[in-house]
TrEMBL record:
Protein name: Mechanosensitive ion channel family protein
A Pfam entry, by short name: MS_channel_2nd
UniProt keyword list: Membrane, Transmembrane, Transmembrane helix
Major location category of this protein: membrane
Biological source species: Rhizobium mesosinicum
Residue stretches spanning the membrane: 20-43, 64-83, 89-107, 168-187
Lineage: superkingdom: Bacteria
Domain Mechanosensitive ion channel MscS: 190-256
Cellular localisation: Membrane
């Protein structure tokens, strides 16, 4: 291109530097757009028989690759264009920053496509979604950590292109004095939750859609971010807890290994009730319920009180919501059965009237 301009000037045709620069930039942009169109036409045909990841990758990266190719072409054009050293350095510096941002954009797009395609294999609305909750939780946490790392690396790379900022950063790290201590103390909660998020992704004490009993409230894990966890409570309220809470505090996870749960129904009846009849009725209720998972049904007398005996009923269901509804169903149908068949066995208070002595009866009669 430079030789072409020199030939034009040698032939007596004079072009101002700004017009020559515009021509050079227009040519490199046109060639780049043409090359981009040919390249992605070939790539589209190449990935037609590939899996969803590669097809999505080519489709989603088309725009950002075009911008990256234009930035590289403009940087080349700025090198050969008749610009001053200052102008050329300024243009190439700006284009370098754009290129760094575009590379970060590409990395984030590739990460998003891979995680989206990966999570398509798992369904949270399945009956037994333990495996899905495990992978979704790991993926969501690691996605936020990777996003944070991409942003940090991008900002650092952009700052390193400025000599003054690079020297200041080096001197600040070398000093490691009071400023370093202040920054470390200021970032302590952020770093604490960041490492807690990595630990949660690896050990997984909680997962997306887990049923938890935390701070005396029952709810499900709705969202796990890079710094906090959103728990949707049973009455649709949201409890927001930092990630470090689940590392430092005890809580109950009702779906840690399986979504199935055993529900407990406690009932207190008079000693006269036939326990075997209660057992048969509970088994009948469980057999006729669509909520029971056909695994556990048990009736046992677990304690004797002064006036009543304690009967514990165990029934199982496939998840916590169905277990709660099954417990309510057992209570309702069992108490209806007792009221109809054994009303005298419901708890009641006995009172025995002792007769007064003979002398007291005579005095009362007088």
């Amino acid at each position: 291109m430079t030789e072409f301009l020199n030939d034009i000037r040698a032939g007596g045709i004079w072009l101002p530097d700004w017009l020559a620069s515009v021509i050079i930039f227009a040519v490199v942009i046109s060639v780049t757009l043409f090359a981009h169109r040919i390249l992605f036409r070939l790539l589209t045909q190449l990935v037609e028989s590939k899996d969803l990841f590669w097809r999505s990758l080519v489709s989603r990266l088309k725009r950002v690759v075009r911008l990256a190719m234009l930035v590289a072409a403009l940087s080349f054009g700025a090198t050969i264009a008749p610009l001053t050293d200052t102008q050329s350095a300024t243009v190439r510096h700006i284009l370098l920053i754009f290129f760094i941002v575009l590379v970060a954009w590409m990395a984030k797009t590739v990460k998003h496509i891979w995680m989206t395609v990966y999570l398509r294999r798992f369904k949270l609305d399945a009956e037994d979604n333990l495996l899905a909750r495990k992978h979704v939780t790991q993926t969501r946490i690691m996605e936020r950590v990777v996003d944070l790392l991409i942003v940090m690396v991008t900002i650092s790379a952009c700052m390193m292109t400025f000599d003054a900022v690079r020297q200041y950063g080096v001197s600040l790290l070398a000093s490691a004095g009071v400023a370093g201590i202040v920054v470390g103390l200021a970032l302590q909660p952020v770093l604490k939750n960041l490492f807690a998020g990595i630990q949660l992704a690896i050990t997984q004490p909680i997962r997306i859609d887990d049923a938890l009993l935390v701070e005396g409230e029952w709810g499900r894990v709705e969202e796990i971010t890079s710094t906090y966890v959103v728990v949707q409570l049973w009455d649709w309220r949201r409890m927001i807890l930092p990630l470090s809470y689940f590392i430092e505090n005890p809580f109950q996870n009702w779906t840690r290994e399986s979504s199935a749960l055993i529900g407990t129904v406690m009932i207190y009846l008079d000693y006269s009730v036939p326990v075997e009849a209660i057992r048969r009725k509970v088994e009948e209720i469980a057999q006729g319920s669509k909520l029971w998972d056909r695994r556990v049904v048990n009736v046992a007398v677990t304690d004797f009180r002064e006036a009543v005996m304690e009967i514990r009923i165990l029934v199982s269901a496939s998840n916590s919501a169905r277990t709660f509804d099954l417990r309510c169903e057992v209570r309702e149908k069992l108490i209806d059965f007792i009221q109809r068949e054994y009303p005298a066995s419901l708890p009641h208070v006995r009172a025995v009237m002792n007769e007064p002595p003979a002398r007291g009866r005579r005095e009362a009669a007088e």
